[in-house]
Amino acid sequence: MGIHVRSDADIAEVVIDFPPVNALPAQGWLDLAQAISKAGRQNRAVVLAANGRGFCAGVDIKEMQRTPGHQALLGANKGCYEAFAAVYECEVPVIAAVHGFCLGGGVGLVGNADIVIASDDATFGLPEVDRGALGAATHLARLVPQHLMRAMVYTCATVTAQQLHHHGSVLEVVAPERLREAAWAVARQIAGKHPAIIRAAKQALNGIDPVDVKRSYRFEQGFTFELNLTGVSDEARQSFVDGR
């Protein structure tokens, strides 16, 4: 359980492994950020994948509800911010290999990745409104058009890998058993290029990005803190934990 890293031929694979649904605790997000940043410094491409039933179910809401005060909330928000930023600022391209569900913080990771490969069972969504939070609309907006993003935030609806492929944000949709292979194939293509040029390309593409993803996401987080101060967020999270 935790964050696993393996490297081969100048490619690193960073794997999320927090059973049963890859809902990461606060420390897990920080560990993921550190692993991605280190992998980017030492390799030519990074594959971000996950074990288990789905790619990522976001933050560990149960950790928040069993922790007195706001420390778990603060930890999760800091961890998500660091992990999303680590993907975006990774020195080399990050290829996200997504299977099953990709929710909440999972969308934050994938939306900041350079390339997305998805299995044909993958779905993407933000259940934040139902959980008393806001966030990662910044990153969802990098995957779907503006009005669809708004509808997804308000309704908590999900979209499929095939829909994202139609919008151009998923490069390839493959059978689940071929997911890692397909992600590594793209990583090998990138790793075969001149490393200095690829690193410069990553900096250049971030530099011309029309959205400051770190500032935009931080703005969203501010509303989550406001909702928590009113108590409504705690009610929504507890309802989720209780299965209501």
TrEMBL record:
Coiled coil: none
A molecular-function term among this protein's GO annotations: lyase activity
Annotated InterPro entries: ClpP/crotonase-like_dom_sf, Enoyl-CoA_hydra/iso
Keywords attached to this entry: Lipid metabolism, Lyase
Gene3D superfamilies attached to this UniProt entry: 2-enoyl-CoA Hydratase, Chain A, domain 1
Presence of keyword Chaperone: no
SUPFAM superfamilies reported for this sequence: ClpP/crotonase
GO biological process: fatty acid beta-oxidation
Keyword Transmembrane helix set for record: no
Similarity annotation: Belongs to the enoyl-CoA hydratase/isomerase family.
PANTHER family: (7AS)-7A-METHYL-1,5-DIOXO-2,3,5,6,7,7A-HEXAHYDRO-1H-INDENE-CARBOXYL-COA HYDROLASE, ENOYL-COA HYDRATASE-RELATED
Protein name per Swiss-Prot or TrEMBL: Enoyl-CoA hydratase
Gene name of the encoded protein: paaG_6
